[in-house]
Amino acid sequence: MNFSRLSQSVRVFVAMCLVAAAPTALWSQSVELPGIVVEGALPPRALAEAAGTTVIDASTIAKSAAQDLPSLLSSVSGVLISPTGSTGALATISLRGSSSNQVLVLVDGVRVTDPSTGQTDLSRLAIPLDQIKGIEVQRGSLSAQYGADAVGGVIHIHTKAGASASSIQFSIQNSSFLPQSITTGSGGSATVNSFPWQTLIDGQTAEFSANMRNLSVWGKAKRATNAYPYYDTSKIRRQRVNSALLEGSGGLQARIPLAIGEISSSVRGEYRSLGVAGTASWPSPEAHQNDWNANAALSFRTDALLNGALSLELSPYVQGGGIEYRASSSSSPDTHNSLRTGADSLFSWLAPWAGELKGGASFRYDRLDSSVVKLSDGSAPQRFSGGIFLEPKFEFGKWTAIPTLRYDVTNDFPSGISASIGVLRDLMPGTVVRSSISSAYRAPSFDDLYWPATTWTSGNTNLKPESAYSADIAVAHRDQGKSWSVGAFGRYAKDLILWQPDNLGVWKPTNYGNALYPGVEAEVSAKRGAWELSGNYTFLYSFTLNGTLSLADDKRIPYVPMHSASLSAIRSSEGFDTAFLLTYSSLRFTSTANTDYLPSTFIANIRLNWFLSANTSFELNFKNFFDERYQIVSDYPMPGFSMSMKLTVRAQPKGSAR
Fold this sequence. Notes:
It is built from five helices and 37 strands. The chain has a single domain, classed as TonB-dependent receptor, beta-barrel domain (Maltoporin, Chain A, Beta Barrel). The strands form six sheets. The chain has a 22-stranded antiparallel β-barrel. A six-stranded mixed β-sheet has the order 1-2-7-8-5-6. Strands 3-4 form a two-stranded antiparallel ribbon. By secondary structure, the protein is mainly beta.
């Protein structure tokens, strides 16, 4: 009997029955679906004018089939998440084909990139989705507004700071993989083991949150064995080992209204202990990692200056993180502890002309205390950087022009200027054309610059920052119940930093070459009866221009798919919610030779949520419903079908709506 085919048929049948059994009495609720921003309320640190901007609000997040932050972001146009397997393993993000180092991620205004690698590991952002107020994804080169590293774009994550009605919530969740026979050993010593039923209780998660008028507190504890089956290169079914995860995280956000403004503060921290499984071809059965990160931020905002014509925001912050890695139980650990502190200031002035003037200044200090990455004299790498920008807005009838100029100073590479200009044109009520031309740069990471010289690896202190120039244009429309947008973009990146072996076989980073990324994006969302629907499609025809390669060679950038798309469908009825999230990505080449590739993927996630009472709900979540066996990063097998059950209990005052 083909167990995999039978289990898939059973899952399809069960899902169809559950959807068919949903109550038909409908209740109306306004839900904001992901879409291009045209008009509407923005957070106090108003977004830069980018042609490609997607906003996901709390209502959409609450009903989405996404179970975690990487799954949620993967449904956004132009976003590519690159996980390396199990829950807790490295998961990086790309925007419009950028490298993960070229995406700036902000949580409540604080940069969460690792100063050591320059990347943001989404697996270390253990923020419960129900504690996220909203997410804005800005695609395009935005260094003129945000400084270094915003080459591909910027992702803003805003957590909740209180609620209109007080509530306390507790949930517990169990995650399971289907038990399947597993082969251990190889050749004549290979044995087939019966179904490991422990996979039915592979992971558990407990979450707690309390929301009051001006205060939100949350905590999360999680364990996972991550012992999921996968197929090796010989098509033999094996089980992932040394992937266990233990995680604890928590956060607090508060706000204090003042007569002339508001003070808000946030504190967040996380600690993890996890096995590092390695690749399928080169497993690391004893490697282990402990890591932590924490940040605290304070913000003062006011719009009561100059009789309301001037608004101001001041935001100091501090962030720390650490990683301890052991290759085996007998080896000495490598440690990397980072510190980041700084402050941002922003202002907005309603100028005498038809428009306004925005601007700001920032200062940041980064330091890495590492047992591996050091300066030549053995001291800790550190970086001081500061910047100032101005962004006037000029309105001429239906036209709006927004030029931006920024100057950054940094101690360990040359200072420079970033610039952009955005042009908007109102075509008709609810329809706008947005276009922009901009420049951006990425600073080399501490690993790029100062990795110790060994027989096999070496950093490069002569690296230049990467730079990029981009242009995009989009037409967007929004009215009652629907929105759509379509646009084209292009980005030329130069002096890309690439780790590769030199003539002596030593791996080191160099400013190796250039790349070109032309593409098209389309997004649409609509409400049809009881359904809330949204979808997007991205076409990205990248070109590798490294070394002797030119446009005529027609070589794609490794790991950048040409086609990607997603479809989200949400149905609400009295006492029952259903959500589907389908994502597609075409094949990805794994080298600039474009000979080896990873096949296309189609992933389906389903969420079924029953409201058992006014304060109790029960969820069934199906992840990778069709049991796709795939890899996003070569030689890191991803989990197949998994199911989780979640029970949530809430306590809130009488009269509070769910």
